[in-house]
Amino acid sequence: MAVETTYTAPSAGRLFFALWVPPACAGTLHAMAGAVVGRSGGRLMREDTLHLTLAFLGDIAERRLPALLEHAAGLSLPRVPVCLDRLGFWAQNHILFAGSSAPDPALGALADSLQESLKEAGFLAETRAFVPHVTMLRKLLHPGKLPALPAQAWEAEEFALVRSWRSDRGAAYETVARWPLQAAVVS
Q: What are the b/e assignments for 11-27, b being 16+ CB within 10 Å?
């Protein structure tokens, strides 16, 4: 059952499933990225767009969106702990990111399970190795010495289907729908 659906008129855009970063953590990450962009340049991601991608679908025909929403609503995925405790830089695509030095295996299992179900349902051509990260800056040529990231930890309670568009001001995101992650059953 979807928690929230904001599906609007058909339009172009790429789709992905993600965990949104909670506001307090997003504020910390945004401030740290702002300090890096202040001395090194790059394009700062907006605080309200910080997310951790679980599965990237790319372009999906609008006619397939109802089936995708139905598929996602039928999934029973667990709540997972997330901890971001280090900053990193991918030079090949000029991205500063927040990552985890030791990701909880449950987070990887969630992403793998979601990707596999999407592949079986025909929404993904292939599954990809999951690397948990939150993109903070784009188009960064060299970050210099990165500051230490105080651990940003939370339990993810929902996942979302998100549509993104590229514009001259960067990426814009629209949450298409959200679904709860299931609490662990205590026996």
A: eebebbbbbbbbeebbe
User: From CA 127, how far away is CA 118, in angstroms rounded?
Assistant: 9
Residue 149 pLDDT > 50, yes or no? yes
**pLDDT for position 186:** 58
CA 99 – CA 151 distance, rounded (Å): 10
Question: Domain ranges in the chain?
Answer: 4-180
pLDDT in tens, 69-98: 999 999 999 999 999 999 999 999 999 999
CATH class of 4-180: alpha beta
CB 142 within 8 A of CB 32: no
The rounded distance, in Å, linking the Cα atoms of 32 and 66 is: 39
| Contact status, residue 169 vs residue 14, Cβ threshold 8 Å | no
Which residues share a beta bridge with 171? 166
| Extended beta strands in 62-167, E state | 80-84, 86-90, 95-99, 133-138, 152-156, 158-167
Mean pLDDT for the stretch of residues 57-75: 93
Task: Check whether 126 has a pLDDT greater than 90.
Answer: no
